[in-house]
Amino acid sequence: MSDIINGLGRTSAFGALGLVLLILGIVLVDVLTPGALRKQIWEERNRNAALQLSSALLGVGGIVFTSIWTTYDDFGKGLLNTAAFGLLGLILMGLAFLVLDLFTPGKLGAIVVDPEPHPAVWVTASCNLAVAAVVAASIS
Asked: Rounded distance, CA 90 to CA 55, Å?
């Protein structure tokens, strides 16, 4: 019975940390794109913005999953790894967005919130997932 209670406690802690990282991912995408992201997705049904946010959330989820998976036996290390690699992943995804914006025509933030579907958003979303995969692969 204590194993179950211990597991529930660990799961709650990792879950809370994961939620914080996901919220930070939402904030990051909101900061990098003009206008209110919430309005863009839920009111205006902007597919570009939804794809951009979804890729960031999937990326963060992959990093959190990998961190927990590789360090679960050491709870303290697992929490620290999850926080550190999750934050690093968010920083790198934000930097990748800015670099991609620098080397491509137009303003990427404006493209993301444009109501007309744009293939550049798929590139940006793929970049989020690629960056997250690199971070996840580096976790040991």
From this structure: 12
Helix (H) or strand (E) holding 116: none
pLDDT tens sequence across 44-82:
999 999 999 999 999 999 999 999 999 878 899 999 999
Residue closest to 56 by CA, chosen among 126, 135, 138: 126
Domain that holds residue 25: 2-138
Overall domain count for the chain: 1
Task: Give the separation between CA 132 and CA 72, rounded to whole angstroms.
Answer: 20
* Residues whose CB is less than 8 angstroms from the CB of residue 129 and which lie 6 or more positions away in sequence, other chains included: 55, 58, 59, 62
The pTM of this model reads 0.91
Q: What distances in angstroms separate CA 71 from CA 2, 9, 19, 63, 65, one per listed residue?
A: 20, 15, 18, 12, 10
Q: Which residue, chain included where needed, has tokens 């940006």?
A: 124
